[in-house]
User: Fold these one by one.
Assistant:
Number 1:
Amino acid sequence: MTRPSPRALLVGAGAVLALGLLAMGGWFWRDAAQRQAQAAYAAAMTGAQPGRGAQATPEARAAAIQGLEAVLGRYPSAPGAAEAAYELGNLRYAAGAWAGARGAWEIALVKATASPTLRRLAQASIGYAWEAERKYGSAAEAYRAALAALGPQDFLYEQLLLNLARVQEVVGQKAEAVQTYRRVLAEVSQTRRGPEIRARLLALGAS
């Protein structure tokens, strides 16, 4: 059996060392890239603050939208993408860009795998965007999809049911709306919206 020469051993050791250094360098690069992405998202979210709220000027809102679009385009897979996409949807909605808002919320829905709360907010918001476009059938589908995995104790369950009932009223589905309102009263026993719901039932000829 031929023993490897000292040079071969050195070359082999050098290759192993090089691989180790490459792996370490890759880790440091990923860590640095992640920190850079986090800093970029933090800056974009902070920069978006002047564009929030009813008192925001169109120019401030447009600048906030542009900043969030830029960071999402640059770091689409970074951990902050879901929150930024949700905020982008809010800003676009406030600007009257319903389809664009819905698109941003759909991105947030896909990316918010680690945040059930953010996913529910995005799902509900998608329904609001459809309502704003007067596409009530699509809005109802969005609310039903959001409700599918929820129970009476879950965040937004009651509000999603009320949203669905409202849409059913708008399109003239009175029997379905009555059923949904009654479902709220039956399943959310501690609801604070009882008087409002009963008023809607009376308006629909039910009780």
Number 2:
Amino acid sequence: MLNLDAYAGIIFDMDGTLVDSVGGHLDAWQQVCGRFGLHFDGDFIHALSGMPSWGIAEKMLARDAVDHCPRAIAEAKYQAWLALDHHPDLIDPTYRVFQHYEGRVPIAVGTGAIRPCAELILARVGVLDRLSALVTSSDVARGKPDGETFHSAAVTMGVEPRRCVVFEDTQVGVDAAHDAAMDCYWVGPAGLEFRPRPGH
């Protein structure tokens, strides 16, 4: 088991890190892209995972030179996702870390999803009521890659940010962890890769 005894708090990203929910989001994005005349590129969207949906919509609108309200697209994407009624599974390597440290240190989730979406997903996988904190894009002024999401999670847990470690699956999320002065583990195809905060 990964030795995290140097840390006083653990923060997991949700989609693609703790919960295998990326597929449901991509299915919803594919529907919405067709409706709004945007090119659907799953790799492009996944690379931005962790950003709020309206932020991803802004990037796609700029890329495709299409004029729509990004928040309207984000709402349409959320409604499409709800209609899909996706039931994801937990991701085993990170969930084993969760289980090992549960009750030993406070554990939070910091996600770019809106609160209703995050609460539904985390409740479905049986994690919501076991968290010390949940911070979503609904709770912050600046989403990832800004560090506010993770900083707010640390404050809510009552842990000094530098004593927290983050688990993330995208560069956007790693950048957010480092912006919050936190070490990070990249959750990738080869397993967990340590990405220390700059200067650490």
Number 3:
Amino acid sequence: MKLYTSPIGPSPHIARILFALKKIEPQIVEVDLLGLENRQDDYLRVNPAGQVPCLVTDEGVTIAELSAMAEYLDEIKPDPVLTGETAAERALTRTRMRQCDFLIFAPMVLGYRHGDGRKFFGPRITLHDGIAEPAKAIAQEGLAWLDPLLEGQSYICGDRLTYVDIIFFVTVGFFAKQGQPLDPSLKNIARLMAHLEAHDVVGKTA
């Protein structure tokens, strides 16, 4: 399999953690994000949406979403399991992923792209005024919604590490340094972030 990726950005960082946890070493194809290589025809033939990273399986299937990539890796090497051991666990993982994506991750991305990251994203996407601050506020509301759900549990889906935790750890950690700091009153999220930071793979894979 081939992993088209980059040394910069939160999404490639998430992919590195997923592969490190699985102890899988794909063929790496480095994409020059700063040089807009992911917006050029050669890369768009691999992944028409232009996201980085993307995984091309041995069968030639392109997987360009991190949650789908994590589930694919679980299918081919279910150790450690990052989706769930049972149908109910897998359903909860997908539920929390969808909730975090809709309520937290997507607004954070919008807030950054149309705000603090305008200089980087200007040549890449159409930017709109007036989006950044409302999007950041929505993300903070999402974090406040999630915080009490974490009371008394080690991870987002209970006491098992899932790909949702990995995506959360990297995404929230990245944007906390890009104008979207964590509210210190969200004690359960702060505890989760510290717990993941101390993990021997999640917190140690750069």
